[in-house]
Amino acid sequence: MECKVIRTDKAPGAIGPYSQGIAVSPWLFVSGQLGMKPETGDLAGQDIASQARQALSNLQQILLAAGCDLNHVVSVDVFLTDMGKFTEFNEIYQEYFSEHRPARAVVEVSALPKGACVEIKCIASCA
Predict the structure, then answer these.
(1) Neighbour tally for 13: CB within 10 Å
(2) pLDDT given at position 16
(3) Which residue spans traverse the membrane (predicted)?
């Protein structure tokens, strides 16, 4: 089993001792993505909409760096600091996953790094 580290400067670098993604054929495991701008490492905004779009874009860029795309995603885990934003998040999520619908879990957490309000990770099958 060979593990390949996936890295792109089109998504924020890891803010801890982990990789943006790890590929173990045929699987790609993408680490949790906050709504941080890759250029600055700052949150895209303080609202769920800007952070969710940026987090999904970051996720998408890591998938692309591994030779995959959103259609390869089989499972998504979402962490929200306010479940009251669930409906708003779903509307944004559907912009990225409109027809392809991976398995998904959404849970509320008490806090996320950098004061973010959303974090998203996924598993993709890229064979």
Answers:
(1) 12
(2) 85
(3) none
